[in-house]
Automatic annotation (TrEMBL), chains A, B:
Cellular compartment(s): Cytoplasm
Catalytic activity from the UniProt record: L-homoserine + ATP = O-phospho-L-homoserine + ADP + H(+)
Domain called GHMP kinase C-terminal: residue spans: 213-287
Protein name according to UniProt: Homoserine kinase
Segments forming a coiled coil: none
Keywords: Amino-acid biosynthesis, ATP-binding, Cytoplasm, Kinase, Nucleotide-binding, Threonine biosynthesis, Transferase
Annotated gene: thrB
Domain GHMP kinase N-terminal: 67-150
Entry EC no(s): 2.7.1.39
Keyword Kinase on entry: yes
Pathway per the UniProt entry: Amino-acid biosynthesis; L-threonine biosynthesis; L-threonine from L-aspartate: step 4/5
Length: 309, 309
């Protein structure tokens, strides 16, 4: 095999209460990479579409490029040549794990073309290196679910311990991206560095409740647990209409609603596709009220991670 | 029915990572209450055994007395008379939920004698009032599992939201009580009031991992998640030999080991009764090294809460 086309899913990180430890993947949107082996050493990024010319073609500055490079070094083939095209099928800087999806698609494609020397889970550290380029630190809460699919717990970063848990079959995500931008680095900077013991306990209760709700399963418990007393209050300020949109989601029947990753996209979880569709429309309307355009997505929880197309 | 004998189980609260939100019940030790209806209004505590004369017979200062009183007020029968005897079959001030077990046994017995106007779960607020007498605040992480059995998550205190989750059938607790005392109020006072975001994230990861480990089930994940970076480091200082005893538990095959409630008892969780028995002996030996006497208990996770005897 000399060429491959891989699609990696967008992801919702944090999932309300689980800052840096929870994430899940959706079936769409996502990113597509076309990777082709080359006899000329080095990785060349020939084409990037869907980014309005904003992403760097310099391999050392591109999340997919870095991820593939680190992977090739690890498997002892640093001189393997690759031609890469990247097709963004999702908004940049949206809080939907855009950089993670590119890194995952790239490293997954490379591993396929190299004859799969590593398992899917073993690709994680290289995709995380791609994330480091994009947001300054190697987080796994987008890369983990994009690579593995499903709902993912990052129990520990050192050593890395990632657990994938099943989700109820009728659980749907509504995602609304308002056409404004929040820089991930800024969104991290405004967080408090010290949390009261009381808030920590509240957050832990919701973390425990969400995992239990997903596994039992218990949709109402999932809903009661989608509460974030630490991150959401700080970041909501950066998102116009946040309170209106969240209230609209709950009013339309969502189990819960919060910020996707560092925003500005919001996500909601609902039981059933019909409710999730209604919820997405209600959320979008909340932004439209003040003239902010949106993209909306409704999806089941993606269960497989990257797909060869 | 005019008289009833009820046994309520001891409990391990916090369970390493879950300060104030996790607890589980064991089959023994526990507390026994004998409650008898009386035509004379008011609650009289006639006998308390197993406490070396340390517990108050004044109803307003006794956890079982308060719990029953609050219960009778709630059901609109404040003048119902009761004679109560309390038999402590567990050490006081041990971190095993001694006051909670008394309150649970008392209120459960009263509800039975009154014809069960309330469900078992509805008794919780009254047992919590008993806890308030003992430790200054109305915690649910001992009362909850003692009343409901099993492994319990307190997702929220306001409103109270308690979730019972199943535990793997081969999960055993080893509990070792060193014959020293730690006052619960002191043990709370030494805790930091502010937690770094980094520690909060680590703790949340372990909370999520423990719930997932219990429900999947995955014994190794349970073990990896029995880590407490917030409370244990502060409280371990109050327990002589803590590091030695914990290391001995892990060496003997425990999945994990930490402080039960506010201590000084330590607990470990293991797969299988044989391992749990070996672990308890190893832990006890760690205290004996320095001349501290112990009581040891090995038990499955109790699944039913109070029992009529």
């Amino acid at each position: 095999m000399e060429s491959i086309r891989v699609y990696a899913p967008a992801t919702v990180a944090n999932v309300a209460c689980g800052f840096d430890i929870f994430g899940f993947a959706v079936n769409h949107p996502g990113d597509e990479v076309v990777l082709t082996k080359s006899s000329t050493p080095g990785i060349r990024i020939n084409e990037i579409t869907g980014d309005d010319g904003r992403l760097p073609k310099d391999v050392l500055k591109n999340t997919a490029g870095i991820a593939i490079m680190k992977y090739l070094e690890h498997i002892g083939q640093p001189d393997q040549g690759f031609e890469l095209s990247l097709h963004k099928d999702m908004p940049l800087g949206s809080g939907l794990g855009s950089s993670a999806a590119s890194a995952v698609a790239g490293v997954f494609a490379a591993n396929e073309l190299m004859g799969k020397p590593l398992s899917q889970k073993e690709l994680l550290p290289f995709a995380m290196e791609g994330e480091r380029v994009a947001c300054g630190s190697a987080h796994a809460d987008n890369v983990g679910p994009s690579l593995l699919g499903g709902f993912v717990i990052i129990r520990s970063y050192d050593p890395l311990d990632i657990i994938q848990i099943p989700t109820p079959s009728d659980l749907y995500a509504s995602i609304v991206h308002p056409q404004i931008e929040v820089n991930t680095k800024d969104a991290r900077r405004i967080l408090e560095r010290e949390i009261t013991l009381h808030k920590t306990i509240t957050q832990m209760g919701n973390v425990a409740g969400l995992v239990a709700g997903l596994l039992l399963p218990d949709y109402q418990l999932i809903g009661r647990s989608l509460v974030d007393v630490i991150i959401e209050p700080a970041r909501a300020i950066l998102i116009p209409q946040f309170d209106v949109v969240k209230a609209a989601a709950l009013e339309a029947g969502a189990l819960g609603c919060s910020i996707s990753g560092s925003g500005p996209s919001l996500f909601a979880l609902s039981k059933g596709k019909e409710t999730a569709t209604r919820v997405a429309a209600a959320m979008a309307a909340g932004f439209h009220q003040v003239g902010i355009g949106t993209e909306e997505y409704v999806s089941e929880i993606n269960q497989q991670g990257p797909m060869i197309r």
